[in-house]
Design goal:
This protein has about 650 residues and is of the alpha+beta class. Helix content is about 55%, strand content about 10%. Strand 5 and strand 6 form a beta hairpin. It is globular. The mean pLDDT is about 90.
Length: about 650
Amino acid sequence: MPQPTGVIVERFEKALDDLDQAASFVKSKYQTDVYQEANRLIEMEDGLDHLFSHAERFEQAGVFQDGPWESADKLQPPLVAGSLRAKGLPMIIEVLSELRMLAIAEGKATNPTVSKEMAEDFLNEVMVLNLDILFPDASESTRIEDNENSEKAQKLFQFLISHLSSKALVKTLIYEIDRLTAQRPIMIKRIVSMIQTAKQMTDADSDPEDQQALQKYIAALEGPSPLSNKFKDLNTYRAELKELERNDLISESVSLAKSMRTTGLVAPHHATLIRFLSKRMPGLLTYALALNSKGLANLEENQELVQQIIRASIFPATRQAIYGLSLMLERGVLSHSPVAPGLRRLIELDIRPNVRKDLQQAGQAGEGLTANSLLVAGTIQVLGQPLGVGQGFNPTCQAARGISLWAQHAPGFLLEIIPRAARDGDIDIMFEGQTIHSENLQGGLAPNLHTELDPVSLVLVPHLDRIYSEMMTRVALRGDDGHRWVNPAFYGNWVQKGFSSAFDPLTGYVLDYPGFVKLFYATHHPEYNDDYELIYPNPVGIFITNVHGKLLGLHAISITRIAKDPTDEYRVYFYNPNNDGSQNWGQSIEPSVQGSGEEEGESSLPFHEFTSRLYAFHYNPYEQGDAYAVDHSIVNAIHTLAKDSWGKDYTWV
C-alpha cells in the first residue's frame, strides 16, 4: 500500500535537511536519500507541489553538487528529454533541476549565473522541444521509444506549463495545431488539448497575431457563429433557433459550416442546429453541411436516410460526425447499393454487451448515448474521412490501413464486417482456400488494445489484428516476406500480385538494392513506368527512422497517388495510419502534410526520399516500364540515404 503523502513529505524534508547539514565532502552519501524520497513524491498526485515548495533550497543544500546538473548555466534544453527517459537517477535529478529552474524563473530562488529571464527562456525552450511528451502522439517513435518514465515526464511538463506563460510556447502550439488539423484526423483529443492549453496561456500581453490565429480554433470548438458565441448553453441556443427566420437560419448554418470546413473541428452547437434543421427545415441541411453540387445531389437522393442517420447518431457528443457526414455525401458513398441497408442495420443492431461497454466507455461519459449511436457516428466518420483513420497507440497499422482502404473502395464489405464483429464477435477472411475466423484466435500484435480509437476501429481492430497475425504465422517458413501472400488475401483483389522486398527476411541481408530501387521507379514513377497510373492504394512497407536517421522499426502505409507538386517535382502521396504524418525521419527527410499538393489526410515526400525509406511494395508484373533507364546518379543518391540510415542495421551484399 502507498504511504500517505504527509509521511512521504516528512521523509523528504528530513532527507533534504540531513543533506543541507552535511559537510561538503560527504554530501554524496546523503544525496541518494533525497533522490529516493523525491521519486516517491513524483509518483504522488500532488507530489510536485510539495517538491516545488522546497526548490529554492535545492542548490544550497547540495542536491546537484558534484554532478552534471551542478552548474545551472551550462544546462542544455535538448538534453532534457533524454534524461527524463533514462532509467534511475537521471530522471529524478532532471525533475528536481527543472523545478530549480522554475523557482529561479519565479524569483523564489536566486542563482549567480542564471537570471529570472534566462531560467524562463530555458524552460520555454524545454517545453517547445518536448511537446510530444506534453501531448503524446500516436507515432511509431512514441510507441517504440515509450518507457516507464513517460507518465512522470508528462506530469512534470503539465506542472511547468501551469506556472509558465510564454509567447514562444503559444506560437509553437498554434503551429502544431495548424499542422495536425491539416491532416483531418478522426480522433481529435490531442488537438483539443493543445487548443485548451494555448487558450489558458494567452493573456493581454500575448502577440495579437497569435491570439487571432488561436481564436479561430477556440471558436470552432466553443461557438464560431455570433449566435452560438452569445448563447453557450445548448438548450438556450436551441430555443433561440426556433425564433429565427429562414434567412437567419441559413446565415447561422453557413457560419458554422465554414468554421467546420476551415478547421476540421465541430462545435456542439452545430449538432444542435443539424438536429433542428433535420426536423423543421431539412432543405437547409445543405447549408449546414456546406455541400458541393455532388454532395447536394447525394443528399437529395437519400434525404430520408440522411435524416434517419442524423436522428440516430448526430448529438453534441458526436458532433465530429457532422464533418464525416458532409464528406461522405460529397464522396457519393450513399449511392453504393450496399451502403444504405448497411447503415440502417447498424442503427438497430443488437450489439454484444462487451462491445457495447467498450463503445460507451470510449465515448463521452454522461451524455446518455447508446452504443448504436456511437457506432453509427463512427461509421459515418470513417466513410467520410477514410484517410483520417488512425491506429492510436497500438502497433496495428495493418488493420487501420485495411479499414481506410475498404472505406474508400469497398464500403459494402466494411459495412458487412462491422456488424459481424459488433453483434457476433467474429469475422472471417478466406486465405488460400481456408476460412480464418477471428473468434478462434488469440494474441495478435495488440492483445491488450489501447482503446483511444474511433468506434469502428475499436470494434474491428481486435479481429483484424488477430487474422492478419494468423496469416503471417502461416507463411512464416516460406523463405520470403509473408506480406507477398497475406496482403492480397487480407485487403482484397485490387492489391497487385507482384512483390519486391529490399532485404531477405531469413538472413536480414540487403540483396541487389539498386535493382529494388530501379523496379520501384519502373513500376511507379511516371517518367519510367510507361504512364501506368496507380488505380488503387498500394499497401507498402517502410523503414521508420528517428530524427538521427536511426532505425526504429517497420511500418505499414499506403501509397495513394504519385503526382507533381506545385513546384513541378514528382512526389509520392501516402496515407500514414499514425495520423501524424510529418515527423522528422532524419537526413532532412520530413514528410509534408500541407502546402505540397496534399489532399486531406495525405502525407508526401519527393519520390527519391520516399524510395530511400521503402522496404517492400506490390506491383503489376505486366505493367513495368524501363528499369534500365533509371539514371545511376538517382540510384546512388538513394543508396547513400538508405545505407547511412536504416541500412546500418543490416548487412549489405
